[in-house]
Amino acid sequence: xxxxxxxxxxxxxxxxxxxxxxxxxxxxxxxxxxxxxxxxxxxxxxxxxxxxxxxxxxxxxxxxxxxxxxxxxxxxxxxxxxxxxxxxxxxxxxxxxxxxxxxxxxxxxxxxxxxxxxxxxxxxxxxxxxxxxxxxxxxxxxxxxxxxxxxxxxxxxxxxxxxxxxxxxxxxxxxxxxxxxxxxxxxxxxxxxxxxxxxxxxxxxxxxxxxxxxxxxxxxxxxxxxxxxxxxxxxxxxxxxxxxxxxxxxxxxxxxxxxxxxxxxxxxxxxxxxxxxxxxxxxxxxxxxxxxxxxxxxxxxxxxxxxxxxxxxxxxxx
Length: 318
Prior knowledge:
Largest sheet: none
Shape: elongated
Distance between the termini: 42 Å
Helix content: over 70%
């Protein structure tokens, strides 16, 4: 209990610091601490061409795997998360998670082979997918947080007379990761002759961020019909910043319901372990019954359904 109290105090201070930093500086600690990887690679001696080729290989690593019926869902999230893990290694990770879960069920329970295989497959695939999805969402949130500042950098460069390509290159150099490296890759493509609108559209489609689609559409329209791009981008930056503030408000309002749903789903799983630690052998007689593991599977299904329903209730569309 003493260790638990120390852990709760540490978590409280950590989140208090995060909240204070967000209020004072307007962005999270993560958004300010991400080093621009592309600039670091060039500073280490790699040429711009080699850097672009390396980044392109990482981005296209999962493109072909998207056509695989089931694995394609995971490949899309891997591309969003920017995880340069080959599909073969991802399959090895899933197999390793399956083997670990199966070994644990075999050593810790007396359930049937079919039950162990089914639960291990669900846990392995679901666990790996949840891990990748969390990485993708975190990266996407960081990009949305950094996007208004990067667009304002472009606006200031355009207003002093720089062309859009130069303004975009400045934003790529000054923006931290993950947005800075993505901008830098597009900037290199433009330097080698690719169309600006096409490069921005491909980046928006790959990352699946709506605000980046707005940026690519604005630049494409300005290329075709002309106009004051600086004013258009300034209005876009204001709209994105206001939307992001609204998202934060919605997230703060629904935080209690989300944590309640998570707690109600996890607590029934933790209770048997806590009881077994306090009084070993408490469930021995019940575990010998043939219907015990069937009942456990039903309860797990209800807990998952509870988590999904609670998520849907607080998933407010803005």
